[in-house]
Every structure is written in C-alpha cells, then in structure tokens.
Amino acid sequence: MSTRQTKNSNLHKLLLPSICAVLSCYFAYHSMIGKYGLDSYKKTSEKVIQLEYRLAALHEESSELKSRVRLLLDGSIEYDMLDEQARYHLNLIQSDEIVIMKAVK
Known about the structure:
Largest sheet: none
Helix content: 55-70%
Distance between the termini: 96 Å
Number of strands: 0
Structural class: mainly alpha
Shape: rod-shaped
C-alpha cells in the first residue's frame, strides 16, 4: 500500500478569493461602461432631454401652423393673409411697394 503525501500549498486558499475578485472587477467594469451601464444611461438621458426640447419646439410650430390654418378655414378667408402668401410664393410685387423679407423657418 502506498500513500502519496502532498505539501499543503497556500495557493489553494487564495484560489476562491481571487476568482471572486476577478468576477467582481468584471461586473463592476460592465456596470460602469457596458451596454446597460452608467455611461450609457447618461448618454440616453442627454438624448432624451434633447428630444424633449425638439418636441416642445415642434409643438409650438404646430400650434402656430394650426392657428394660421384656422384663419383660412373659418369660412371667411382673410384677404391680407392670402395676398401675403400669394405674393411671397409667386414673387410678385407692385412697383410702388417695398418688400421686407423675413426668414421662414
């Protein structure tokens, strides 16, 4: 009968804690920088804020356009507005008029 004796090593005692430390570092890294990490959350939050500002601007523009359309749809066309739009789109002016062009959004 033969028995083998092995020398007790300290490496066996450090194996489990080192594996746990490596896994903890892995999960900590991906919680900060990964696809669903804090960095991604910040970028998404900034994009949400930008899109909310854009949505507010579009709502404002939409309400402005609705009010202009309402002026045309109430049964009586406002002739000044109709004349202004026709002259703007056709580039027509009379000889005694002065035109001040404003930027259209």
